[in-house]
Amino acid sequence: MQAKPNIILITADSLRANHLGCYGYPLPTSPHIDALACQGVLFEKMFAPGIPTQPSHTTIFTGLHPVTHGVVAHGGRAKLARGTPFLAEMLLDEGYTTCAVDTLFRERIWFGRGYEYLVDPTLHHLFYASVTQEELNDRAFHWIKTVPKGPFFMFIHYWDVHYPYVPPERMRGQFYNGGNPTDRDNHALDEWWDHPVGAMARDTWLRTPSGLITDPNYVTALYDRELHYLDEGIQALEDTLEKQGMAEDTMIVLLADHGESMTDHRIFYDHYGLYAHSADRALAGRQAAHRQPHRAFPPVVRRHADTARGGRHRSSRRTRRQQFSEATDRGGRALRI
Amino acid sequence: MQQEPQKKNALVPDPPATPDPPSVPEEPVQVIRPEDEAIVVERLRELGYID
After folding, report:
1. Of B28, B30, B40, which has the smallest distance from its Cβ to A200's Cβ?
2. How far is A259 from chain B (nearest CA, A)?
3. Cβ contacts (< 8 Å) between B36 and chain A: which residues?
């Protein structure tokens, strides 16, 4: 066993917590993520302090509230101060080989801080959110198999459940109750077409040769299929770690940057507003976490790295192994925090 | 001796045909063309969502 654990931090952009089985969703959208939660720790109450992607990810990597780090929206001139501690840099200093499979550093420069390797498969797309888990995993797996010579930190940013929701065609039929997706008499989405993002959807990914998709239940099914597809990707990642003999030495932390509204509060398939569907987000991890609010996320990860090498937290904190054992001793049910 | 095929009794009506199940509309096929992605990028830039 390695002295320090490998750490894989996964963010699933726009992953709505209550569409996961481990958060009570009745449809089988996420069997593998549910299993991950069962093996380790599940945070039942997890709130994004800032929406959307850039403020939230800046918080994930700094442990600071958006009002404190200053990045409160997309656009604008706010920059993360150079002296602000950043998780990837901290781990680099701890001797980790660091890699991001992500695109955020192209939007804001601080998201590249601390990475020796920046891998961006989204360059093959005009819109970065169209990248698939398979494209990201293809590069991530290659890196995992060939590069690390010691402990590594990898950040993977998946976009499958961010709009546009265009799941693989093989998933047709899943999670839909058999209505008419293109019923011209269904006007439930009419008011969305007046919103710029709705108009964009109407003119692109909801327009099909059979007609315009008008049934909100069908759009929600597309989201759920994307989630199921992402779930397959998480399992593929775990399988790769297993085959490489790295599974026991690797901490996996999966979280969302924010949730997603389906049609709640008349916000259609987007993420804004101080509502639970946008602010609630998922966090599950294997071999992870103490009882900490999520702004303390970077210290939590660092503490694990420190604990594993016999650092100063060993005497006062339970080890990762103890936590893992406690979780599995509950009959395979997740340790819920 | 070969048996003659049974003649249809005109007095016995044919059993009622099983009604067809209600037709379920086929799911649409999403086709995202490169120009669609370009529209998405253009609109999101206009909104200031992306640079």
Report:
1. B40
2. 17
3. 203-205
Q: Is the CB of B26 inside 8 Å of chain A's CB atoms? A: yes
Overall residue count recorded for chain B in this entry: 51
* pLDDT for the residue A75: 79
pLDDT digits (tens, 9 = 90+) for A129-146: 999 999 999 999 999 999
| Euclidean distance between CA atoms B28 and A145, whole angstroms | 39
Q: List CB contacts of B18: < 8 A, sequence separation 6 or more.
A: none
Inter-residue contact A216 to B39 (CB < 8 Å)? no
Domain harbouring A283, CATH code: 3.40.720.10
The residue of chain A with its CA nearest to that of B35 is A204
ipTM of this complex: 0.73
Chain B residues with CB under 8 Å of A160 CB are none
- Cα gap A102→A116, rounded to integer Å: 13
Q: Rounded to the nearest 10 degrees, how much is the dihedral formed by the CA atoms of A66, A129, A194, B38?
A: 130
- Is position A217 within any domain? no
Domain total of chain A: 1
Asked whether residue A61 is assigned to any structural domain, the reply reads yes
Boundaries of domain holding A271 = 6-167+231-336
Chain A interface test: which of B24, B26, B27 (most A C-beta within 10 Å): B27
Whether A200 contacts A168, CB under 8 Å:
no
pLDDT tens sequence across A225-284? 999 999 999 999 999 999 999 998 999 999 999 999 998 888 999 888 778 777 777 777
Whether A148 is in a domain gets the answer yes
pLDDT, tens digit, 9 for 90 and up, residues A78-131: 999 999 999 999 999 999 999 999 999 999 999 999 999 999 999 999 999 999
Which residue from B32, B34, B47 is facing A205, i.e. has the nearest CB? Answer: B32
- Residues A129/A74, Cβ–Cβ less than 8 Å: no
Instruction: Measure in Å the smallest separation between the Cα of A290 and chain B Cα atoms.
Output: 35
Report how far apart, in Å, the C-alpha atoms of A126 and of each of A106, A131, B35, B43 are.
13, 9, 9, 13
* Cβ–Cβ gap A181/B28 under 8 Å: yes
In-domain check, residue A210: no
